Every structure is written in C-alpha cells, then in structure tokens.
Automatic annotation (TrEMBL):
InterPro entries: LysR_HTH_N, LysR_subst-bd, WH-like_DNA-bd_sf, WH_DNA-bd_sf
Domain HTH lysR-type: 1-58
UniProt name for this protein: LysR family transcriptional regulator
The keyword Metal-binding belongs to this UniProt entry's keyword annotation: no
Gene Ontology molecular function: DNA-binding transcription factor activity; transcription cis-regulatory region binding
Keywords of the record: DNA-binding, Transcription, Transcription regulation
Family statement: Belongs to the LysR transcriptional regulatory family.
Amino acid sequence: MESGDLRIFQCVAQVGNLTRAAAKLGYVQSNVTARIRHLEAEVGTPLFIRHNRGMTLSPAGQTLLSYADKIIGLLNDASKALQATNTPSGPLQIGSIQTAAAVRLPRLLAEYYSHYPDVSLALATGHSQMLIDQVIGYELEGAFIGCSCDHPDIKSVDVFDEELFVISSPSLQEEELIRKPILVYSMGCSYRKILEDWMLLSGIHRPVIMEFGTLEAIISGVTSGMGISLLPEIVIRQQIQNGLLRKHALPAGMNRMMTRFITRKDAFVSSALGAFMAMLPQE
C-alpha cells in the first residue's frame, strides 16, 4: 500500500467524486480511477459505494480513511520537520469558530503577520466539532474552538473567556423568547447546544430550529425579528449600541464560554506555529 495511493483515496473520500478529485490532484481521471481500483484489489474489498450522485465510503473505506488520515498527517509532519528553520516561514493552517474569527482574530493575525511576513497563513472557519475533527485528521495545525475537548490526541490552552447572551430584536419581550424559532449553525456548534439546553430548561423540548451558514446571516435574521440566537457579547456589542438588537441574560453556569486553541499532542510544532502560539493571550 503506497502513500501516493492513500493520498488519492483520501482526496476522493473528501470530495466524493472522481472528476473533482482528479482536478484537485492535477491528475487525469483515468489515472485516479485505476489507482482506486488497484487499492481496492490490494485490500480485497470495495472502499466506495458508487451511485449516480458520486461516491461515498463503504464501511471498509471509513476504516481505511481513519488510518490514511493518520499516515498522511505523519508524513506531512515529517516533511515539515525536515524542512524546518528557526525563522517562522512557510504555510500555517489554522481553523476557528466564526465568532472568534470575526472579532478576536483580526488584530492577532495582523500583529502576527507584521512580525512574520514570510508565513503563509490560511484561516478556515467552521463549528467546533468540525474543527476538532480537522485537527485530529492533520488537516489543520491548530484551531480555536468554543468547547472543551477530551480527545486523547488533543491538547488545548484557554484563550478567550466570553460572556454569552440570548439575543433578539429590540421589540421582543422576555416572556416571548421561548416561543420564537432559534437561529443557529448546524449540529456541532457549541452555541447551539447551550441555547437548546436553555430552551429545555424553560420547558421547550423541541424548539423550531433554523440553520444558517454564517454569523452575518444569523445576526440579520435576529435583527429582522425572525427568531432568537445566542452569541458572545463582544460579537453583538455594536448592534446593541445601535438599537438593532436586545440582549437577555442567561442563568449562571450557562452564561460563559471559554474559547480554546487546540493542537495535536504528537504533531510537529513548526517555528511558524510555535511563534503563533507564543502570541496567544491566555486566560
């Protein structure tokens, strides 16, 4: 089983389509198809379920992907270690929840770039569970998440202590909150979990849920009176001051969230990542 075949397999698993995988890898499709078939013959079982919408992993494929992610991650780490220099440079892939990316990171990233202009920093956003999975799978070197993480391969440092509020349009009264839909990200979002727990505490077992893909869309939806949401005060401070939103306090024990920066325990810490972590504020 060659590492090149595993990289092709990993790419096909990620995009779910041979044509897109070939384009991403810079190969012709026939080569990608042949390498996948060769790998399936080598392991003696189908790795994908083919259908008219593309390809999804078979149970055996899911098992192999977990190993492929680790193997490829370690190979990439080895390459970084061999190419490492004492001066921060090269690529640095970081992830973040959208709230931290919107209000906490711009100043930090600008300061980092001013000190280390030779680092090519890429920032990806997503919900906490997605980011944890990407760090575990070596797709990201580190990430800012909005929850605790007890995975044995992950270490974390507390960075930002956030105060949380339920938010609504200015005209909505306290007693009306639980009757409104909740505007949230997809499953895996830490804010969503807290808001659902608060609704349950208020006697609402199945709130109407509207999922949005961006922070801006959630804030706009709440501002228009579509529903309520839950966000750190720092994110919506300007809208509250301008009279566009109203904040409502949460019970003690639910009204704070720690944003943490996570990395893999066994991953190689490049000079670029080490310099970035040295600049993090710590609560």
